[in-house]
Specification:
The complex is a heterodimer of chains A (about 400) and B (about 150).
Chain A (H helix, E strand, L loop, with lengths): L24 E8 L10 H16 L8 E5 L8 H8 L5 E4 L6 H14 L5 E9 L2 H9 L3 H6 L7 H17 L3 H15 L13 H6 L2 E4 L1 E2 L8 E10 L9 E10 L13 H12 L8 E3 L5 H10 L8 H7 L15 H5 L9 H10 L13 E10 L4 E11 L1
Parallel strand pairs in A: 2-3, 2-4, 9-10
Antiparallel strand pairs in A: 1-7, 1-8, 4-7, 5-6, 8-11, 10-11
Helix pairs in contact in A: 7-10, 7-11
Chain B lengths: L31 H8 L4 E5 L5 E2 L14 E5 L3 E10 L13 E8 L4 E6 L9 E4 L3 H6 L4 E4 L2
Parallel strand pairs in B: 6-8
Antiparallel strand pairs in B: 1-2, 1-3, 4-5, 4-7, 5-6, 7-8
The chains are: A alpha/beta (about 400), B mainly beta (about 150).
Chain lengths: ~400, ~150
């Protein structure tokens, strides 16, 4: 028996070009549960909701999913493999995110690589938690050995106390003011007023922001997120598996963790190390982006991301904030569904809310908070608080397919 | 200078730490010298025998050069406030009566930084601080605490 031989493929030497996620792979479906201040529902139930919505939004069949990824703080002892059992999926690739709020963006990048490497063809990426304020405090008290041994016994105030130290340092080093940072929270709240799934939708003026009660001076109430229950999901696959209007291409993306090393409260993070490659590989400039979904656990961290990602120079974010309006219809659409600051922080789901919102915007499905002509956007992640600050950072640039 | 609401630091009607219910660090071979040193009023730091750099928090190996040859040195206990927050909403309820808690990033004379409470005054950036060493303080607080230099 003879067999036809394919013509030899001209192989490119390994490493001849940077490993570029994307090209023909991207996000084709997204899902987001209702956000709850408190719920009796199980986390696996919430993740199931998000998964089912994402599948429906992709138009794919359930059995086309052959890879699974999940980011969650309170899911253990369950994990990605036991979720495959719960959801009846047979998978060739399973991934558990370890980068806190920086994890979901990193998970999508890893899903793209897994598909490129042939380990899976369609990956369900999940993120979520079902805790509340008390659950969040308990989690923060036992977050890592470094923090629970050397932070918690000081009465450290959780993330609020740590980011109070970061914010004061930024204010005293660069002259950044609460009036400037407040524009982030106020702009996002204006977007949230159009989003029925945001837990905090009341009007907020800059004066309301400034007058809010002190939590961990200089952090006040509207600098903080509301811990809540909820889940988010996206489906990553080859874009030619779905009809054109459903796909969002991943142009470039990176993660970097524990930069700078051995600092307690740095005013920068891993984004500064990959910023140039991020834009270079995407082949776009900052001016080509129609929105940014930045990880917003605190306005000060959004400000630091804007600096590190190159929207302004280090230390000059205060003036940048003064120049812009950050609502979905403003001059710099930021966290266009209201972000975590207005929607709530569904644990590790807070690292995916920007991804699902970006896909919603790029597919033109954001309704009353739709950014006009949204063709391209950036999503950044941040998290995994160690001894003093979040250790994880990630970012991806997405484009309408 | 005393400020209303700032924890006054030493109370004699609570003779042992258990009465305060503070969360405690977990003692291990990596940090036993540090935790035991504090109970004797000392701030103990690791120093790498190979690259000579000071290390905080306690680790099983040097995070700079990966040497496992670490020695313990006693810090002068002097440092300077780099930044701080005043915590009105502690995570753990055992701290609720002491708000606001002044949590500071303090860089020690040895060149390494740590997070610690500053007692008896509102800190300011650049403030010189010293380790508090009285037995009432070391028996009460799970981790080293500081006071403004007098």
């Amino acid at each position: 028996m003879t067999h036809a031989t394919n013509p030899p493929v001209q192989a490119e030497p390994l490493g001849s070009k940077p490993a570029q996620p994307g090209g023909d792979i991207g996000i084709v479906g997204y899902g987001q549960t209702t956000y709850y201040k408190k719920t009796d529902r199980t986390l696996i139930g919430l993740l199931a909701d998000a998964a089912r919505q994402a599948l429906h939004s992709s138009g794919l069949e359930k059995n086309s999913i052959d890879g699974i990824s999940v980011c969650s703080f309170v899911l253990p002892p369950d994990n990605a493999v036991t979720l495959a059992e719960q959801f009846g999926l047979s998978v060739g690739w399973a991934y558990y995110g370890t980068a806190g709020g920086g994890g979901p963006v990193a998970a999508v990048l890893n899903a793209v690589r897994a598909i490129e490497a042939g380990h899976a063809s369609t990956v369900l990426c999940l993120a979520g938690d079902n805790y509340d304020i008390a659950g969040h405090f308990a989690l923060m008290d036992m977050f890592s050995v470094g923090l629970s041994n050397y932070g918690t016994p000081n009465g450290f105030g959780g993330a609020n106390g740590l980011f109070g130290i970061v914010q004061r340092k930024h204010m005293e080093t660069y002259g950044t003011t609460r009036e400037q940072l407040g524009k982030i929270a106020v702009g996002q709240r204006r977007s949230a007023q159009h989003n029925p799934n945001a837990l905090l939708r009341g009007p907020m003026t800059l004066q309301d922001y400034l007058d809010a009660r002190v939590i961990a001076d200089p952090i006040c109430l509207y600098d903080c997120v509301l811990p809540c229950a909820g889940a988010e999901a996206v489906i990553v696959t080859a874009l030619d598996r779905v009809d054109g209007s459903r796909g969002v291409r991943t142009l470039s993306g990176f993660e970097h963790h524990n930069h700078p090393v051995n600092e307690i409260a740095p005013l920068r993070g891993g984004w500064e190390l990959f910023r140039d490659r991020l834009f270079e590989q995407a082949g776009v400039g900052h001016e080509d982006l129609d929105f940014v979904q930045a990880y917003d656990d605190y306005p000060i961290m959004v400000a630091i991301q804007l600096e590190d990602l190159g929207f302004c120079k280090k230390g000059e974010v205060g003036a940048f904030l003064e120049q812009h309006d950050f609502a979905f219809d403003g001059s710099f659409p930021l966290n266009t569904n209201g972000g975590q600051l207005s929607c709530g922080q569904s644990g590790a789901g807070g690292g995916m809310i920007g991804l699902t919102e970006a896909v919603r915007q790029l597919r033109g499905e954001a309704g009353e908070f739709q950014v006009k002509k949204a063709r391209r956007g950036l999503v950044s992640g941040y998290g995994m608080v160690g001894y003093g600050h979040g250790l994880a950072s990630s970012a991806v640039i997405l484009e309408q397919a | 200078m005393m400020k209303k609401g700032i924890d006054s630091g030493v109370q004699t009607n609570h003779p042992n730490k258990a009465d305060y219910g503070y969360p405690q660090p977990v003692r291990s071979p990596d940090n036993a010298v540090y935790l035991d040193g504090w109970k004797e009023g000392k701030l103990m730091l690791q120093k790498c025998c190979e690259c000579k750099k000071p290390i905080f928090f306690p680790r099983p190996m040097c995070p700079h050069c990966w040497s496992d040859q670490l020695e313990w040195i006693q810090s002068t206990g002097r440092g300077e406030v780099v930044s701080y927050s005043l915590i009105h909403r502690p995570n753990h309820p055992s701290f609720n009566d002491e708000v606001p808690i002044a949590l500071a990033e303090i860089v020690l004379d040895e060149g390494v930084a740590l997070l610690a409470r500053v007692l008896e005054a509102t800190p300011s950036t650049g403030m010189k601080v010293n380790l508090a060493t009285e037995s009432e303080v070391t028996s009460r607080y799970p981790l080293p605490v500081f006071r403004p230099e007098t």
